[in-house]
Every structure is written in C-alpha cells, then in structure tokens.
Write a structure and sequence with these properties.
By secondary structure, the protein is of the alpha+beta class. The chain has 13 helices and 15 strands. α1 packs antiparallel against α2, α2 runs antiparallel to α5 and α5 packs across α8. The radius of gyration is 25 Å and the shape is globular.
C-alpha cells in the first residue's frame, strides 16, 4: 500500500474514532474496546508510514541538494541530480582520483570539489551537506521544532533574551513625558562544538560493486550518528562542555504530587499547559519520550473518554488537549524527579550550525592493510534557549 493510501486510511479511522468519542451516552466497556481496536489499527498504520518516510529521508535530502549543485556546477537543475550523484559516487569509490577522472572526462569543470585537509584524507562538503542534514533529521526530536541558524563562521554569537510578558504601555496625557520601563533581559552566547560521527569502514568489494548504493548507505549511517548525539545534547545537554539542552533550560511549570514518580494525570497536563503564558501557547506543543506517550494515551477525562485523539486531516498531528506533540527518544522517561514532559513554543530554542557537515575519506594504513576505506563526518553545532520568559515549561515527576 502506498503512503498516500495509508494516510487516507488513517484519516478514515481517525474520523471514526472522533465520532465514537463524541457520541452521546455512557462510555461503556464495549465502547472502550471498540476504541482500543481502532487505536491499534492506527498504530499499525503509523508504523508503516514511519518506515516508508524513514526510507525516503535520505533520498529527499539528496534531492534538496540538487539546487545547490546546479548553482555550484553551473548546470541546469534537471541535470543536477545526475551530476551530484556522479560526483559523490566518484568520490566515495575513488577519492580524489575519482573526481579527477570526472574532470578529465569533461563532466565537471570545478577542480575544487575535493579538498585535502592538513590531517590527511580528503573532504567533500557541497554535494553531501544536504543529504547528511536530512539523515540527521530522521532522528526527529528538537531539531524538527527549533529555530535553526546556519552561519559561515564559528565565532561565539551573543543573543539578547527578553522577558516582556508582563510589560504594557500606558495612557499619556498632553505634554507629559513618556515614562521609562526597564525591560528584563539577559544574554545567551552560542558557540559551536565539533561533533564527529566516528569512523565507519567499508570494504573495497562494496566500494567497487556498482550495484551497491554506496551513496545512500554512507550518508544515512553518518547522518544518523550525528543526529543521535546532537539531539541528545539539544535535549539534556548540561551546558558545560556541550550545548545546554531544552530540558536543562526549561523551568518546572508543574511538579507532581507525592506518588507521581512514574505517572502523570490529566490535571498535571492542564496545569502544565497553563503554566506557560498564553502569548506562547498559540505555537505550543508537547514533547516527551514514546514511553510517556503510552501512559498519556491511557488517560481519560471525567466521563471516561480517552484524552488522546488521532489527527483527523491528512498530515494533521495527533493531539493532547488539542495540542500536537513531538516524540523525542532522548527525553527522560518517567522516574523520580525526572523532567519527563515539556510544553511550549520550541522556536525559542536555537540550534546553530556552522557551514554544515563535512565528510572525510581516509585510505591510510589503518584501513588499506585490511582492504578497507574509512569514512567519517564532522559537524560544528550548538544549541541553547534564547528566552527567559518561560516559553517552555516542564512537568517534573515527584521524588517518591
């Protein structure tokens, strides 16, 4: 079944679930069982959709690089995809010699495709950057919701952070001087940490096998590795020697009562929602671990109806209290004192990337004696909250 057909089927079931919940009358065990059956079917469809989307992520990222390739190589966009793949495959399989062969054949004219860094090996950035970034996004989490800033240099940047939620103007009489109002503000400095994917080794046999999609294999593996470590730090980073994660930066908006060390209630979610100023709630979402979602799906309102409902329109998010949510597997699971649920406007979290990911191809003795070629990718990036007005608040489980 195609992804379009799966989404259409999901919408159909979601509409039935909504009508089922809104139907008048008591919420009986039979109605609960029917709801759970539809919920299970929705879950199966979601898993199928996620699998298809994951398989398309890398290819979409490669396609996104085509426009950049067209500009850089001075070719038409129609020819960019073919040329980009030729450049990358030549580089992956043959390194600098592979690129030189393309140049000599007249396929490309720019001889600066491959650089030779001081530490050895060769690098390629332009054609690979979009694809690695797309593979990183397959992890999901903070990068999907945050504000992402790309800079050409890595010097520290100072951002002014302001809390203006309680500020307002006043009536000014004739000839009266405009009064002063001191704004509460601070600064957040965002630098750039150097991340590595760690090296992967690929056999010469795989590199020389024309049927093997070496491009997708290496791009996906390097991107997923960078995506996992950066998302971990964007989520729970300490801010000391690594980015300050959104969980670390968020103030507690609702603390669970004693006995809530591994659970959450409907009242907890409502209190968390209203701990965030209304000015931020228009773009707000929840964020939590998938295990937390399982517990939230079991919550019911005062009539016994489920709190969670699937999105109705195609592509519409599933909702909790009419807000969408983001699954982030680096969020803390529910445990004593854990900040296990976040709520707010995640655009107030800033991710800063410097120039994009760079890939290295190494053929030194460490690899060639074993008939291998090594690849790794580096990315300079950081993240921090650029708000002191409480745009994102956390639910914290109790100590006991």
């Amino acid at each position: 079944m195609t992804i379009q057909a799966l989404r259409a089927k999901r919408v159909e079931i979601a509409n039935k679930m909504k009508a089922h919940v809104e139907k008048e009358g008591a919420w009986t065990s039979d109605r609960q069982a029917e709801f759970e059956n539809m919920n299970a079917e929705i879950g199966q469809i979601d898993n199928q959709i996620k699998a298809i989307e994951a398989s398309l992520q890398v290819q979409e990222g490669l396609s996104a690089a085509d426009e950049q390739t067209a500009r850089f190589r001075n070719v038409s966009t129609e020819n960019a995809a073919e040329l980009r793949r030729e450049v990358l495959v030549a580089y992956l399989r043959g390194g600098k010699d592979g690129i030189q062969n393309l140049i000599q054949s007249g396929r490309i004219q720019n001889a600066q495709t491959v650089g030779s860094p001081a530490g050895g090996g060769y690098t390629v950035t332009r054609e690979m950057f979009g694809a690695i970034q797309a593979a990183m996004k397959a992890i999901g989490g903070v990068r999907d919701l945050a504000t992402v800033l790309n800079t050409a240099a890595g010097n520290p940047l100072d951002f002014v952070v302001v809390d203006a939620t309680s500020e307002e103007g006043a009536i000014l009489g004739e000839s009266q001087q405009t009064p002063d109002l001191d704004t509460s503000f601070g600064t957040a400095q965002i630098g750039a940490f150097k991340y590595t994917s760690k090296a992967i080794a690929v056999s010469l046999e795989l590199l020389q096998d024309s049927e093997f999609d070496i491009e997708a294999y290496i791009v996906e593996l390097l991107g997923l590795r960078l995506g996992r470590i950066t998302n971990r730090h964007y989520t729970v980073g300490t801010g000391s020697g690594q980015p300050r994660g959104v969980v670390t930066a968020a103030d507690v908006g609702k603390a669970a009562a004693t006995g809530g060390a591994t659970s959450i209630t409907l009242d907890d979610l409502i209190d968390l929602e209203h701990s965030v100023d209304p000015i931020y709630r228009g773009a707000a979402r929840f964020m939590f671990h998938d295990g937390t979602l399982r517990k939230i799906k079991q919550l019911k309102d005062t009539t016994g109806r489920p709190l969670w409902l699937p999105g109705i329109a195609a592509g519409a998010p599933d909702t909790i209290l009419n807000y969408g949510y983001q699954i982030n597997q680096h969020m803390p699971v529910m445990a004593a004192n854990a900040k296990s649920v976040l709520f707010g406007d995640f655009k107030k979290y800033l991710i800063r990337d410097v120039m994009g990911a760079t890939m290295y191809r190494n053929t030194d003795s460490k690899y060639n004696e074993l008939g291998m070629v090594g690849f790794h990718s580096l990315l300079r990036s950081s993240g921090d909250m650029i708000d002191i007005g409480g745009a994102i608040k956390a639910f914290q489980n109790s100590a006991t």
